[in-house]
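User: Please run a holo structure prediction.
Assistant: Happy to. Please share the sequence and the ligand.
User: Here you go; the ligand is pyridoxal-5'-phosphate.
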Amino acid sequence: MAISPIASPVQLVFDTNILVDALTARGHYYEYAVQVLEWVQRGEVEGWYAPHTLTTVYYLVEKTLGMQAQTRAQASQAAQAVIKRVVGLLKPLPQVGNEFLEMEGQPGDDLEDLLLVELASQYLPNPVIVTRDKGMLIADRAWEAAHPKEMVERGLAPWLSRQKGKPIEFIDLRSQQRAIWPQLQTNLQKVLHHSQYILGPEVRELESRLAAYVGVEHCVTVASGTEALLISLMALGIGPGDEVITTPFTFVATAEVIVLVGATPVFVDIESDTCNLDVRLIEAKITAKTKAILPVSLYGQPADMDEIDTIAARRGLPVIEDAAQSFGADYKGRKSCNLSTIGCTSFFPSKPLGCYGDGGAIFTHDDDIAQACREIRVHGQSRRYVHTRIGVGGRMDTLQCAIVQAKLERFDWEIQRRLEIGARYNQVLDEAGIPRVQQRPDRTSVFAQYTVFVADREGVQAKLKAAGIPTAVHYPAPLNEQPAYRHLCCPDCTPVASEVAKQVLSLPMSADLRLLQQQTIIQTLSGVRGEG
Ligand SMILES: Cc1ncc(COP(=O)(O)O)c(C=O)c1O
C-alpha cells in the first residue's frame, strides 16, 4: 500500500473543524489552528489529513467564503485555492476502502471522525488527532487527540516526546472488547438480572448457536477445553488399560486427560511443515488396547481428519478432534469440530473464540454420546440426585456463555481478518525467505498462533522483545520429553516433534492486529534474522 514515508516521531492528523478554522479565520481558535499548521510548514512535525474529510472541508469553506464573495464561482475558486495551499503542506492518509468495516464505533459517534481515527491508527505509528471535537477529545478513548489551544500553550515538545502509539500486543483483546462493549453489557446485565448463574438460559442458547455454526446435532458446553476432552473420554468409556493415540506436540491438556482416566497416551510423530499428526505413522501404533485416536488441529489448522477417520473406521475406533485452537476453521467445506466422532474446543480467553475465564464445548452427532456428556458434566446425574455414572463438576457458567454470545456477533468478521492477516504474514515471510508453518490448500487455519521456524530462537526472541514485539513458544518440548510423561513413551521416538520444538516461535496474532504493526513485526524479524 502506498503511504508517504513517515519521518517525525509523532504525526499530527488534522480534523475537519481545524482545517476549516484555519482556512476561513473562523471562530475563537483559528489562530491556534494556524500556529499548529505553521509547525508543520516549518518542518518541525509531520501533518496529515484524511482525504474523505476534504469534501466537508470544501463545503464549509466555500459556504463561509461565499458570504464575502460577489459570485458563487468566485467563492468556489477561492475555496479551492486556499484548500490546495493548506492541504499541500500535509500528507494524505491512504484508504483502501474497507477500513470503514473495521471501525469500532460506539453509539453517537460521528462516522467521518471514526474513519479518521481508524485510518490514523491503521497507518501511522504515533498519530495525534488535532481537533476541537469534544467526542474525540475524551481521555479514555484508544486514540491520542489534542485541542490546538492546548498544543500551542504547551508547545510542541511534550507532544514530540509523547509517542503513545499502540503497543503491539501478542493478542489484542482490548480492541475486541471495545468493539463488542454494548452487546457485552446487554448480555451481562441480562444474566445479572435473572440470576440463573448455573445452567441459565444463555447456556442452551449458546449451545444451539454453536451447534448450528459448526453444523452438528449436539453441542454441550463445559468448564474448559481440558474438561471437554476429559468428559469425552469418560463418555466413550475409556479407562485403565486402554491406549489413546495422540500427538506429543500439543498443549499438555491433550495427553493429561488420557492419563487422568487411567489410560495411556501413545505418541505418534508429526509432519515437519504443518506440525499436525503424521497420519502415515498412525496404523503402526494401533494395538488391541487402542480405544481412540485424538488428533490436535494445531495452531488453528485441522489435522488430516479424513485420513484419520478412515483409519479409525477400519479399526472400529472413535476419533476425538482436539479443536481447542481451530474453532472456526474450514476443512473441505465442513467446520472444525464437525470432522469426527467428537470435536472438543476451548474458550480460553486467547483462543479464536474466547470467553473471559474458562470455558469449552463438546460437539457430536451421536445422541448417546451427547447425553452421556450432559450427565457427566453434572456429576453423572441423569435426574436430580440420581447419579447413574461417575461424573465431574464440569459446567460452563452462564456469564461466560453470555460473553461468548457477545463475541459471536463479530466472529465471522474476526475469522475473515485472521485469514487476511495470516495470508499477509505468509506472503511477506515467503518473500523474505523466513520458514513458517504451512497450510494445506483444502482447509483454512484460523491462526490461533502464527508460527515461524527460527534457528537461534532465544536470540531472536530477545531482540524482538527489545523492539517491543512480544512472542511466545508453542511448545518448547514435545510431551514425551516432559518429566511427568517421559516414562510413557521413549523420549526420542518422535524425532520430528523434538526438532520442531527447538525452532517454533509464535508472532503476535489477533483479528485486531493493525497493518502497520504487522509490517513492523515482519521488518523487525527480517532484520533480526539478517544480523545472524
Ligand atoms: C491443543 C489444546 N488442547 C487443550 C487445551 C485446553 O483448553 P483449556 O485451557 O480451555 O482447558 C488447549 C488450551 O490451551 C489447547 O491449546
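The mean pLDDT is 92.
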